């Protein structure tokens, strides 16, 4: 027995724009799934370059190959000082005695750290008298460091031919260029490791973490207050929705009816509450992400304050910050588009013939648009994050090719589902709130998107159907419904009396204030449908608003039973009459035969 409230709608011109927007979103989604390279575009790929080797083994992290050279950045306390170069090594397992650029870089960075306080040097250098100077050994400029307290110089690095080739200058000129850079960086690194500087770093970190904690408490209180406000607005919005359903007119005979002023006032109030509810939810969402970003930035800043953890803050702590900020931006765009769609829906309602079914139609299409939009936006965000983290294999183009190959074999049914789901919405075959029959499955449409349709059958079971399997649909509740009622009375019943009783019962029920808004017409079809040996079959069609045919059928049968009892009308039942010829032949020798009572 079906008994849900129905939400249907008429076809609007503005709804065409929604369907066109949904079609555009679907095209973007399919393109994104089949080829992320096309989805991101050439400009995006240039903004996010991925290292790729022209041949041989994959390059190590932070190594870049340019022609026959490989380069690597030398860093100290998270700051890039200079870039060195070495001949390209195609096979690092068999380098043939050739030193890869990353190994050389590790040695240079170890030389720099060795002379800092806490390093392996016997005594740290004095930052006031520290000096970086150049000497030529075997025709190669070598950079050394010393101070006034130590006579022995310490080697920093040797300028090689590949270095000069990469920078486009001579070895001597490049050494002169690097000398002041190393001098300043070493002085600064020694100063920030002094006890006084470390005490300042601890104080600054404590202040930042303390301020973060206070802000967390304040924002938490605001978010909790907004949560209580969201709950109150949700309750008021639910109450307004109930009033809208009460005052919404039925779409009788497809003719638009004058809008009840109470319905329009209720809609205006409902839309205002929905906007406020979305705004409160957006604020709570922003506060949540603000708290996460605040702690991520505070931790990253604290790690960056200490020179020992500065490199860790850049290489490790930066990744969560970027991921959080990316998903914040993606989520913000997603919710702003939701607000725009809801605002678009409100504009549809102005000046239109409003019924509760209209709202459900727009809601169905808006849900699909929001779902497709969410998939597209979050897919783009995921691809960007993976690209930034260098987790995509080879390049975006290579990933797009791989996905296209996989999807061509594994996602054929998915494409069929998406296309058929789009056609269902464009052709308006059914919508959320309809009762439909698909093959031998019938149910109430609870959910509808581009891939699946979910039905709730009379037993309460939720049935999920891929849209590609829906080839023929019987919609039992589109625009209006019909209760087909058959009543069989006894063969010897006064047929005129029986028809009059049925007619009178239908008319009285249609005029009943409780049922007047539900019953649309009782005169479509009425009369004797069949005469058989079981009785006379009377059929009547009662046209109702969507989803109310079952309630009307139950109530009409109850009333008709009472009316039949008052008039003494009996329900039809099978009868059998035996006839015997009156002759002189003994009864034992007379044949008997039965005649079924029926027409003719």
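Sequence proposed for the structure above (600 residues):
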């Amino acid at each position: 027995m079906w008994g849900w409230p129905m939400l249907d709608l008429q076809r609007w011109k503005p709804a065409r724009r929604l369907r066109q927007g949904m079609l555009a979103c679907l095209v973007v989604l399919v393109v994104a799934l089949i080829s992320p390279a096309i989805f991101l575009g050439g400009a995006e790929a240039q903004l996010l370059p991925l290292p790729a080797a022209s041949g041989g083994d994959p390059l190590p992290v932070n190594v870049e190959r340019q022609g026959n050279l490989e380069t690597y950045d030398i860093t100290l306390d998270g700051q890039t000082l200079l870039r060195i170069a070495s001949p390209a090594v195609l096979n690092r397992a068999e380098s043939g005695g050739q030193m890869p650029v990353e190994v050389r870089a590790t040695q240079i960075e170890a030389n720099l750290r060795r002379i800092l306080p806490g390093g392996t040097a016997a005594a740290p250098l004095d930052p006031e008298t520290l000096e970086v100077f150049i000497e030529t050994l075997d025709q190669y400029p070598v950079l050394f460091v010393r101070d006034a307290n130590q006579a022995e110089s310490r080697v920093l690095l040797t300028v090689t031919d590949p270095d000069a080739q990469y920078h486009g200058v001579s070895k001597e000129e490049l050494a002169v260029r690097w000398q002041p850079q190393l001098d300043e960086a070493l002085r600064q690194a020694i100063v920030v490791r002094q006890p006084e500087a470390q005490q300042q770093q601890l104080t600054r970190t404590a202040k930042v973490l303390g301020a973060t904690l206070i802000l967390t408490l304040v924002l938490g209180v605001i978010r909790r207050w907004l949560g209580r406000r969201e709950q109150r607005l949700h309750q008021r919005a639910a109450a307004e929705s109930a009033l809208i359903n009460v005052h919404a007119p039925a779409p009788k005979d497809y003719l638009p009816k004058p809008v009840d002023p109470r319905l329009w006032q209720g809609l205006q109030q409902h839309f205002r509450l929905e906007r406020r509810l979305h705004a409160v939810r957006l604020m709570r969402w922003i506060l949540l992400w603000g708290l996460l970003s605040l702690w991520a930035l505070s931790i990253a800043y604290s790690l960056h304050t200490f020179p020992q953890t500065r490199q860790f803050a850049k290489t490790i702590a930066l990744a969560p910050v970027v991921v959080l900020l990316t998903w914040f931006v993606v989520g913000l765009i997603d919710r702003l588009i939701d607000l725009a769609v809801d605002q678009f829906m409100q504009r549809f309602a102005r000046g239109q013939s409003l019924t509760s079914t209209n709202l459900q139609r727009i809601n169905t299409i808006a849900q699909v648009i929001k779902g497709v939009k969410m998939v597209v936006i979050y897919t783009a965000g995921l691809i960007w994050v993976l690209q930034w983290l260098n987790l995509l294999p080879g390049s975006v183009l290579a990933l797009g090719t791989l996905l296209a190959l996989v999807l061509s074999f594994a996602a054929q049914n998915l494409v069929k589902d998406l296309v058929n789901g789009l056609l269902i919405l464009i052709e308006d075959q059914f919508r959320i709130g309809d009762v439909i029959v698909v093959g031998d499955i019938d149910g109430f449409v609870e959910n509808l998107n581009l891939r699946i349709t979910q039905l709730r059958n009379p037993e309460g079971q939720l049935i999920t159907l891929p849209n590609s399997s829906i080839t023929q649909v019987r919609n039992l509740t589109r625009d209006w419904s019909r209760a087909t009622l058959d009543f069989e009375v006894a063969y010897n019943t006064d047929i005129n009396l029986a028809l009059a009783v049925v007619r009178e019962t239908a008319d009285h029920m249609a005029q009943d204030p409780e049922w007047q808004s539900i019953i649309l017409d009782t005169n479509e079809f009425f009369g004797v449908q069949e005469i058989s040996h079981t009785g006379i079959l009377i059929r009547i069609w009662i046209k109702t608003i969507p989803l109310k045919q079952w309630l009307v059928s139950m109530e009409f049968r109850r009333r008709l039973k009472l009316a039949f009892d008052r008039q003494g009308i009996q329900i039809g039942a099978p009868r059998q009459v035996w006839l015997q010829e009156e002759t002189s032949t003994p009864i034992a020798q007379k044949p008997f035969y039965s005649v079924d009572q029926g027409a003719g």
